[in-house]
Structure formats: structure tokens, C-alpha cells
Write a structure and sequence with these properties.
The protein contains 13 helices and 9 strands. It is α/β, with parallel strands linked by helices and 313 residues long.
């Protein structure tokens, strides 16, 4: 890795996180010899980031922008035994958004309420938290969060995801450019527990056949509220691939021109031992089985002939 690339990375980190965090990061990098590891594991992606993402100055400039259309975005998050660290990072990434007309709707299906989380979600009046008292499953918990929504658009997010500070800004910019838009999705990458990013996924524009072969929309996706109401929320029959099912159903009732792709990495999918991003065998098999069911039911509904089977490679 060249000196110029190292300099650009330090400059990017300094602009985004400030002096103290940058010094701490540099010490850890030297201590753990991470530069060499990242070159092997991540290829050129880490070099790409500083040249293609917004620094703190540009994000601050976004805060001054006044849109003609300024919808409220309701970020819906189902929770279950959410680690405090993940939860705090989730809340903080929402608070840092350069677009401020949002609400965070949290439905917690954990067996016991974690009192340590209260200080975190209480620090912003835009955050709504509901302890359910029982686990309704991923679909049921998400539907409980949907009941809290008062916004014009519904953004789906997992409890261990992290949004870029400018994610909602670009969503609202898309809405202003295309006022009839009903569904929006973005590119993504993965994030380690240490906050290092890799495996960028630059997605295609809407492609029905591609969607029938894989759920490439994934976590951070935005529905117009009226569309979500038509869909009736999530269905427990497809838990494990409940988002895949709702995306397929969305594609059946929405005109293709009202589906928009934002070609930016707007969220980071955290990889840990219980994440399907890790693709451990249990999570992988369970999700794949439900995904097969979701696609089979979809093609049956629209009258396509065929039998859906899992990929063998």
C-alpha cells in the first residue's frame, strides 16, 4: 500500500471521525499490523472509499439544504436481544443523519427488557421504543414497529446495521427527483465488529428475473407508506426470508418506473456470529428454505410455470 493511499485514508478518517479517533485508529493499525491484513482480505476497496464517499464537510453542507418535498422517513427496526454496542451505534447513526425529518420506530421482542438501552433511546425525541413482552418472531416484531409509524415513507433496517450519515439525504433527494417513487433501495457493504468495511455490493437497477433468483434489495429499503399499507406488512410464514417475500409482493403491484436504485453505499451490514451475512450453516439453510418458498409462491401468483430449487453452488 503506497504512502499516498495511507495519507488519503488518514485524511478521510480525520474528516469523518475527528482527531482523537484518528490517532486511536492509527495506533491500533500499527499495533495489529492491519494494513497488510486489509490488503490481502479487502483488495482495493479500502483505497476506493476516500475518493467516493462524503467527508464531514460535505455532510455538514447537506444539513443546510432545503428540499421542495421534505417527507418524514420512519425507520422501522425489530429488536431481539440486541447488544448494547450495536444498539448505540444504530441510534447514533440515525441521530447523525444530515436529513433530520425522521423517526426511529423500535419494537423489542426480547424475553427481558434491557434497562441499559433506555438512556440511549431516550436521548432523542424522534425515537420511539416499545417493549413487546414476548417474541412475535421477525415478522411479528416488525409489524409491531410498523404500527408506530407516522411518516410518509417506511425505511427497513436490521438492529445490527449501520447507516451512512447521508443515507436519508439521498433517499429524500431521490423522492424529489421522482415524486411518484414508491420503492427505493441502495448499494451496501459489510462491516466487521471492529468497524472495518469490505465486500462492497454495487447492485443493478430493478431487474425482475434477478430478484427472483436472489434478494438483492436486502436490508435498507424504503417503501412509500401507502404501498406498505397495501402490502399489509410482513408474513410469519416466511420468517427468515420475510423481507424477500414482501419485496416480491411489492414487485407484483408496483410499476417498474416507481422502483428506484440509489447507486451509493448507504448502509453497512454487520458481520457477526449470528448474522446471515456470516452465512453460518443454520442461518443459511433456514433463510434459503424460506426464500425458496417465497419465490415459488411468487411465480405461482403471477402465473409463471416452474419449480424453484436452491442453488447448488
Amino acid at each position: 500500500m503506497g504512502v499516498k493511499n495511507i495519507y488519503n485514508q488518514i485524511k478521510y478518517y480525520m474528516n469523518k471521525y475527528g482527531f482523537k479517533k484518528t490517532i486511536s485508529k492509527c495506533v491500533n493499525v500499527v499495533k495489529n499490523r492491519e494494513f497488510k491484513k486489509k490488503e490481502v482480505a479487502y483488495g482495493t476497496f479500502i483505497d476506493w472509499v476516500p475518493f467516493n464517499e462524503l467527508d464531514k464537510k460535505k455532510v455538514d453542507e447537506q444539513r443546510k439544504v432545503k428540499f421542495k418535498i421534505e417527507p418524514k422517513i420512519s425507520i422501522v427496526v425489530p429488536m431481539y436481544n440486541t447488544p448494547k454496542k450495536f444498539f448505540e451505534e444504530l441510534v447514533n447513526c440515525c441521530i447523525r443523519q444530515s436529513y433530520t425529518n425522521w423517526e426511529l420506530c423500535l419494537a423489542d421482542g426480547s424475553p427481558e427488557e434491557n434497562k441499559e438501552l433506555q438512556k440511549i433511546y431516550s436521548k432523542d425525541e424522534r425515537i420511539k421504543y416499545k417493549f413487546l413482552g414476548k417474541n412475535e418472531g421477525i415478522s411479528g416484531n416488525t409489524n409491531e414497529a410498523l404500527k408506530m409509524v407516522t411518516g410518509d415513507y417506511v425505511a427497513l433496517l436490521d438492529h445490527d446495521d449501520v447507516l451512512a450519515d447521508y443515507a436519508l439525504f439521498f433517499v429524500v433527494e431521490c423522492i424529489n427527483k421522482h415524486p411518484d417513487v414508491e420503492f427505493i433501495y441502495s448499494d451496501e457493504d459489510k462491516m466487521t465488529k471492529n468497524g472495518d468495511r469490505y465486500d462492497a455490493y454495487f447492485k443493478p437497477n430493478f431487474a425482475p428475473d434477478t430478484l427472483r433468483s436472489q434478494n438483492y434489495f436486502c436490508h435498507f429499503s424504503v417503501f412509500k407508506k401507502e404501498l406498505m399499507d397495501k402490502l399489509g406488512g410482513f408474513r410469519s410464514k416466511y420468517d427468515g426470508a420475510q423481507d424477500y417475500d414482501i419485496f416480491l409482493r411489492m414487485s407484483e403491484i408496483t410499476d417498474e418506473s416507481k422502483i428506484r436504485h440509489i447507486s451509493r453505499l448507504l448502509y453497512h451490514w454487520r458481520v457477526h456470529k449470528d448474522s446471515t451475512a456470516k452465512l453460518n450453516s443454520h442461518a443459511k439453510n433456514y433463510a434459503f428454505e424460506k426464500g425458496v418458498l417465497a419465490v415459488q409462491d411468487h411465480i405461482d401468483r403471477i402465473g409463471l410455470k416452474g419449480k424453484v430449487t436452491p442453488r447448488t453452488c
